Amino acid sequence: AGPLRGGKYSAFDGGTRVPFIVRWPGRVKPGQSDALLSQVDLMASFAALTGQKLASGDAPDSFNILSALLGKSPAGREHLVEHARVLSLIKGNFKYIEPGKGPKINKNVNIELGNDPKPQLYNLKNDLDEKHNIASEHPEVVKELAGLLKKIKADGRSRPER
Q1: The pTM is what?
Q2: What are 77-132's pLDDT values in tens digits?
Q3: DSSP string covering the chain
Q4: Which of 26, 73, 133, 152 could be 67's S-S partner, Cβ–Cβ 3.0 to 4.6 Å?
């Protein structure tokens, strides 16, 4: 497979999906994980590692994924909201991109932005390049993820209060 579709300022993962390496000899065994995480999760995870408690307003979108970082669990965060002109939501193998106005391509750098007036849904397990919009084939998943994204926007945070 070639480079991922998209780039910086794109709803596609080409500019945001990067490898993350954890190295802690004697504590973390070498291996590979598909755990979903974001750099914002480091705050809650390191707080847990060091026995600190975050105040309720601190790092409102940070999930404690310490078990995944230490290689003790294959599970990371349940979902991840991404923002690039429009919002998108990754949950499980699916990525939902909400409908958005604007150009489809940034002509200055020739990068697809992911803007589309219709909802987009991709199965990242089978289509990491986000080339096959399967929203019309899975309206129930679109409805579920659109509803979760709407709830997150209304709450102003990705996770419940501590």
Answers
A1: 0.85
A2: 999 999 888 899 999 999 999 998 888 888 888 888 888 999 999 999 999 999 99
A3: --SPS--TT-SSGGGT--------TTTS-S--------TTHHHHHHHHHTT----TTSSTT----HHHHTTS-S---SEEEEEESEEEEEETTEEEE----S-SEETTTTEE----SS-EEEETTT-TT-----GGG-HHHHHHHHHHHHHHHHHTSSS---
A4: 73
